[in-house]
Design a protein that fits this description.
Layout (H helix, E strand, L loop, with lengths): L12 E9 L4 E14 L2 H8 L1 H6 L6 H5 L1 E6 L4 E6 L3 E4 L2 E2 L3
């Protein structure tokens, strides 16, 4: 997900995950995305800036680490999708096992 090419551009990947939306009660639908790159969120950037202050208050985990989610940007549709890491079933057509 974090790999870059010789021009320092992210290398697109494909990912497959199970959809789960607690608020709407929708579960179990398979989501297949191709041509995706990992997207940093403003929460991640702000957390990196506050890293020193987080260590001082013994809060070493950022909000993303607590929720175990990642933001995926699909280049073709230009949309950002939040995916829970444990719901990923395949990465670049390889099965993911936890």
């Amino acid at each position: 997900m974090r790999e870059v090419d010789h021009k320092k551009q992210p290398i697109p990947f494909s990912i497959q995950a199970v959809k789960a939306d607690k608020r709407r009660g929708r579960y179990g639908e398979i989501l297949s995305l191709t041509g995706c790159i990992k997207r940093s969120s403003t929460i991640d950037k702000a957390a990196m800036k506050r890293e020193d202050s987080l260590k001082k208050i013994n809060a070493s985990e950022t909000l993303k680490e607590k929720s175990s989610t990642i933001n995926i940007y699909q280049v073709e549709t230009k949309r950002v999708i939040k995916i829970h890491v444990r719901l990923i079933t395949a990465f670049n057509d390889l099965k993911v096992i936890y």
